[in-house]
Write a structure and sequence with these properties.
Strand order of the largest sheet: 11-10-9-18-17-16-15-14
Distance between the termini: 64 Å
Helix content: 25-40%
Strand content: 15-25%
Largest sheet: 8 strands, parallel
Catalytic activity: Hydrolysis of terminal non-reducing N-acetyl-D-hexosamine residues in N-acetyl-beta-D-hexosaminides
Radius of gyration: 24 Å
Pfam family, one: Glyco_hydro_20
Protein name: beta-N-acetylhexosaminidase
GO molecular function: beta-N-acetylhexosaminidase activity
GO cellular component, one term: membrane
Length: 515
């Protein structure tokens, strides 16, 4: 007798996905593949699976009562993935007597708890999990119950386009990869030493003659593309140090003053007339129209004091801008130095921890935090990906953990600058300096993709549901990561090939060609 088949994907309890079988049956059972729980990534909270495989009908459809455009587009996108997974020949391998899956019905409970979140994102998570249940055209087991929820609300990846420009198609591809591992925040660091890479119509000289930048229409398209995949885009405009990319606005007429310290014009001067702060407010307000997210990142890291740019004047500038964001209804976001260096952080600022600091130090001061500590989550430090498999709440008690929003990985592009930091000509050139310009876009795309993936798969798992009993040197851990890596590659996400080693200059032992 055949078992009743119901797949229940309960992601914080709201998403119910029921499987409908067709009456068509095959003459014998298909051999049962590996257990479903060994291939899912990120780790679900719990999985119960049993029974033989369930063949997916070539006429398989996904139904939902949701009227959300995001959900409908997501269903279309995932249905294409599923139909590619089952292919045209999986029926030929299905000898035996087995039931056939013809329909997936998705619904979300409408209780108060569920309505506190954007339920369209739960559909995305459920559909992603469903695709991971498919192997060789079949649902791995006929009876599967999955209870799941992310441990943290902020699961991010930072991309540094303020040094090396990321081609737009590459950004789209990275967003597809993020969606597949349930990352939900793209931290878009688009202003730094090398460039201000987003078009400003109010201050066109921000381009500073750089040929590569994102038009405002491209930014809107990027934000929309991300939202369709359950990903928020948080902008970062460096607003104290790391500002050489805005040098095109230098002087009173154009709007910004800079301190000329021992290594160059890399810090904003808070002039007595308020020219700099007023121009910065204008820049930030224009960028807010392009990035609708609640959070706005001001950078504020690594400040250097001089005779003109004193700590006091810099603190005043930073606080003025942080309060300005709040006046505009935004939640200010900054690196840890906004508290630990200038002490400019105002109540309500979210702090991003990155270097030589315990999260407890920030939390004890009353600030919400994001764990982006470099020894675990800086992807540009090419190391064993397993270092990203870690409990990001280490050192915090349960009450303190409520102040931890989540974690974030970072892909800095310092090593792609044409000279060190785009202005330190006396230093040795970075390792991949020749990939800075547009003539090396294809090499840069392959290089940076091979550094991000599959290593970011691991950090994404830590942000969703870290489990200490799963050891990074265990066969199960490797099986899970490799399974996810394989799925991403099959979807066209650019990664370092399975079984290969990739670095800045080579892939699978082959050097990238100079343009």
């Amino acid at each position: 007798m055949l078992l009743v088949s119901v797949l229940f994907l309960s992601i914080v309890g709201p998403l119910c996905a029921s499987l409908k079988r067709s009456s068509e049956q095959l003459s014998e059972r298909i051999p049962t593949p590996d257990a479903v729980s060994n291939t899912l990534w990120p780790l679900p909270a719990s999985v119960i699976s049993s029974g033989p495989p369930l063949v997916i009908s070539p006429a398989f459809v996904i139904q939902t009562s949701s009227s959300s455009g995001v959900v409908k587009r997501g269903i279309t996108r995932y249905l294409e993935i599923i139909l590619r997974q089952i292919g045209g020949d999986h029926m030929q391998n299905a000898s035996g007597k087995s039931e056939m899956l013809s329909e997936l019905v998705l619904n979300v409970r409408s209780d108060e708890e569920v309505l506190r979140v954007d339920t369209s994102y739960w559909y995305m998570y459920g559909l992603e999990t469903f695709t991971q249940l498919i192997e060789n055209g079949n649902i791995i087991n006929s009876d599967v119950t999955i209870d799941d929820e992310p441990r943290y609300v902020h699961r991010g990846l930072m991309l540094d386009a303020g040094r090396r420009y990321f081609p737009l198609e590459l950004l789209y591809n990275i967003l597809d990869g993020m969606s597949s591992v349930k990352l939900n925040v793209l931290h878009f660091h688009f202003a730094d030493f090398c460039r201000f890479s987003v078009e400003s119509k109010l201050y066109p000289d921000l381009r500073n003659n750089e040929s590569q930048f994102y038009s405002q229409e491209q930014v809107k398209s990027l934000v929309s593309y991300a939202a369709d995949r359950g990903i928020r885009v948080i902008p970062e405009v460096e607003s104290a140090f790391h500002v050489l990319g805005m040098i095109g606005l230098q002087n009173k007429t154009k709007g910004l003053y800079f301190c000329n310290n021992s290594i160059g014009y890399i810090e904003l001067y808070n002039d007595p007339e308020g020219v700099t702060v007023n121009t910065m407010k204008g820049i930030l307000e224009e960028m807010m129209t392009l990035f609708p997210d609640q959070y706005f990142h001001l950078g504020l890291d690594e400040v250097i004091t001089t005779s003109v740019c004193t700590m006091e004047k810099t603190k005043e500038l930073e606080q003025d801008l942080l309060k300005f964001l709040q006046q505009k209804g935004k939640t200010p976001y900054a690196w840890q130095e906004a508290l630990l260096s200038t002490a400019a952080a105002v109540n309500g600022t979210v702090l991003q921890a990155w270097k030589d600091v315990s999260l407890k130090t920030l939390v004890d001061k009353g600030f919400q935090v994001v764990n982006a500590l470099m020894n675990h989550f800086y992807l540009n430090y090419i190391s064993n990906a397993s270092v990203s498999w870690t409990d990001i709440a280490t050192g915090l008690n349960p009450d303190e953990q409520t102040m931890l929003l989540g974690g974030e990985m970072a892909m800095w592009t310092d090593d792609y600058c044409f000279v060190s930091e785009c202005f330190l000509y006396k230093r040795a050139k970075p390792v991949a300096w020749w990939m800075y310009g547009p003539d090396a876009d294809s090499q840069f795309t392959e290089s940076v993709s091979g550094i991000i993936w599959p290593r970011a798969i691991v950090g994404a798992g830590s942000f969703w549901n870290y489990q200490a009993d799963l050891k990074p040197d265990s066969p199960e851990f490797q099986m899970r990561v490799d399974s996810q890596h394989k799925r991403m590659s099959e979807r066209g996400i650019l990664t370092c090939p399975l079984g290969c080693k990739c670095d800045y200059l080579s892939r699978c032992g082959q050097s990238y060609p100079h343009p």
